[in-house]
Amino acid sequence: MTTAPDAHRSAGRPRTAVLSRERILEAAFTLADVRGGDFTLAALARNLDVRPSALHHYFAGKDELIAGMRGQLTTRVGDHGFDARPWHEAIVPWARAYRQTFGAHPGIIAALATLPVDDEPESIIDYERIAAAMSRDGYPVHRIVPAIVAIESFVIGSALDSLAPEDNLRPVDNAELAPNLTRAEAAARENAAAQRHSAVTETFEFGLAALIAGLLAAGATG
Amino acid sequence: MTTAPDAHRSAGRPRTAVLSRERILEAAFTLADVRGGDFTLAALARNLDVRPSALHHYFAGKDELIAGMRGQLTTRVGDHGFDARPWHEAIVPWARAYRQTFGAHPGIIAALATLPVDDEPESIIDYERIAAAMSRDGYPVHRIVPAIVAIESFVIGSALDSLAPEDNLRPVDNAELAPNLTRAEAAARENAAAQRHSAVTETFEFGLAALIAGLLAAGATG
């Protein structure tokens, strides 16, 4: 499993803690981890022991709160040397960190993934860093955004996939229906073990390398 | 099966409509589209005007219901000639249909994507068809499942991405922070228009082609 240790336990926090943007976001992650993305601001206020109106000093509404959550996750993903390394190298640790960070909050991945990003400076700065590196490295300008979105879609889908059972494509009850799949799943598991990776990590690394290689080749032909 | 009088029943449906697996699944999709994946069986029973116990003749619990929903979507995705065409050709219309089918039910993508698949013969049969084609075409056996999962992760992430605003990476309020991203986003939009595609479709097609090319190349080297 690749989910990061839960950093959002708020036990021991004094009831009189001063309300802050940080504290609201922390409580929102805790709530979303339990309730999924469709929690209400009223429920969040209840968990924080404040009136709903107190939240409005920090976030005008749910969309703005979700944008703040996404911005904070983007900051946690971090830079990975796009200014100093070729984009196709720096993007590998970026994609790994992105999968881990978003995979730690499965209840809200869908809400985060479909949110408009323009309201969050953190996300815009993150994308700008990647776009600048690709541009500097001569990637065709009209392919830069499609390539970033392709990697992001793969990472988001992989974050969801990493929440499925480790042996998810292993036929058991229906093995007689699927001799090829049964053989292939066993071979993949053996290969991952030989690489000392979990199957889900080996699968992610294989797919990520293939996608980046494919994007590089597509960029070279225009 | 028990039907109770209820003023909120859907208009036009006869009061005595026979409960069936099909009808339950249809109501479950309707409910999930509104409520997301965390609806209860009690709410579903209410929408169908039946007692919760009536649902248990068809689905032992929520997991089994979600498995049934996934199985039905998989059937809608359909076969795309894996027995007659090279896997890397047949997978293109399969991936397009998959994105459209799952993208039509965004509220439940996350639940569907993380579900164990072994309980659904439809999904196992679908994966077996692809695994058999890849095996026949000489794809390395230990790479077959990772390649399928990579494409599926990309498709699921793209289905979520296609729900975001069309111009999602277009900096507006924060354009001054992102000159490279602004240029790249405009170029991508112009290119999509020239191809008479929506930007989201052009992005999906570019990423899918790059991923498949990368997976083919990785398979050729073992």
UniProtKB/TrEMBL annotation, chains A, B:
<dbReference type="InterPro" id="IPR001647">
    <property type="entry name" value="HTH_TetR"/>
</dbReference>
<dbReference type="InterPro" id="IPR009057">
    <property type="entry name" value="Homeodomain-like_sf"/>
</dbReference>
<dbReference type="Pfam" id="PF02909">
    <property type="entry name" value="TetR_C_1"/>
</dbReference>
<keyword id="KW-0804">Transcription</keyword>
<dbReference type="Pfam" id="PF00440">
    <property type="entry name" value="TetR_N"/>
</dbReference>
<feature type="domain" description="HTH tetR-type">
    <location>
        <begin position="18"/>
        <end position="77"/>
    </location>
</feature>
<protein>
    <submittedName>
        <fullName>TetR/AcrR family transcriptional regulator</fullName>
    </submittedName>
</protein>
<keyword id="KW-0805">Transcription regulation</keyword>
<dbReference type="InterPro" id="IPR050109">
    <property type="entry name" value="HTH-type_TetR-like_transc_reg"/>
</dbReference>
<keyword id="KW-0238">DNA-binding</keyword>
<dbReference type="InterPro" id="IPR036271">
    <property type="entry name" value="Tet_transcr_reg_TetR-rel_C_sf"/>
</dbReference>
<feature type="DNA-binding region" description="H-T-H motif">
    <location>
        <begin position="40"/>
        <end position="59"/>
    </location>
</feature>
<dbReference type="InterPro" id="IPR004111">
    <property type="entry name" value="Repressor_TetR_C"/>
</dbReference>
